[in-house]
Design brief:
mainly alpha
């Protein structure tokens, strides 16, 4: 009786082994598609469809060859596809530091104090920072461009405006973020932006009745901050050489450019007036 029972158990065990081996071989021979993956892994295909970028053009099997337990490790490394040695960015270690989810590769988040990985793509910016020294040069890229990729912060996030007339968008009309001390501006820059720092010249020019009062500050102070033009650049030599030789500085007679020809009445003493004691 015991022998028959043991034999039955042995036959049953062998049958299960054969059946399992057959099922495994049949499963291995079956070609799976992305439609099969989504039956268990619904979130990842949805992420790829929504924010997958170029990963939309590949199938699940292009990255994940096989499936566990048949495949012990079906999680690929990024360099399996991104292996162009001519691109410095692809040689940067720790891809998942910024590209935390391969199914949404362009949803990029940062840890704090990053600079070097950014330089593999953003070389013009670091060139400007290093060639034009300022306090910005000592900062990490992620000090300003924090949390998410392509974030362009407002200057007022760190800096106070020069005046109440200066809005956050106005900062970039004169200052480039990666070389902020190299101040340049367009010819049509509003005078009020200049007035934030140069209040006295602005007030004089605004009150002036001369033709200069109709011009923007940038019309004379062109292209670059602190540019000081010569009167002759616009007016040429207006007077005979004898007068120009005697009065080589236009301001000797005409005053300063912001308060032009604002002559004060002469204060001559009448003839025979007693001298001051």
């Amino acid at each position: 009786m015991k022998l028959n029972r043991s034999l039955k158990l042995l036959v049953l065990f062998v049958s299960h082994v054969i059946l399992l081996a057959y099922a495994t071989s049949l499963w291995a021979a079956t070609e799976l598609g992305s439609g099969d993956c989504v039956k268990c892994h619904a979130a990842q295909p949805a992420q790829v469809n929504e924010k997958g970028g170029r990963h939309k053009t590949v199938s699940c099997q292009d990255c994940h060859s096989g499936h566990r337990p048949a495949s012990k490790n079906n999680i690929p490394v990024c360099s399996q596809c991104h292996n162009n040695k001519e691109k410095l960015h692809f040689q940067t270690p720790g891809c998942l530091t910024c590209h935390s989810n391969p199914h949404t590769p362009l949803v990029i988040s940062f840890t704090k104090n990053l600079t070097e990985p950014c330089l593999t793509c953003h070389t013009p910016q670091i060139k400007q920072l290093r060639e034009n020294k300022s306090k910005h040069t000592a900062l990490y890229c992620t000090t300003c461009h924090a949390d998410v990729h392509r974030k362009i912060p407002a200057c007022t996030q760190c800096h106070k405006p020069h005046s109440a007339d200066v809005m956050p968008a106005d900062c970039l009309k004169c200052h480039k973020p990666h070389m902020p001390k190299n101040v340049t501006y367009a010819e049509d820059t509003n005078n009020k932006l200049c007035a934030a720092c140069h209040k006295n010249p602005y007030n004089l020019l605004t009150a002036s009745k001369a033709k200069h009062g109709a011009f923007n500050c940038a019309f004379c102070h062109q292209d670059k901050h602190k540019a000081m033009p010569k009167c002759q650049d616009c007016h040429g030599d207006k007077h005979p050489k004898g007068i120009m030789a005697k009065f080589p500085k236009c301001g000797n007679c005409h005053g300063i450019a912001h308060d032009l020809n604002n002559w004060k009445p002469a204060t001559q003493k009448p003839a025979g007036a007693p001298k001051a004691q």
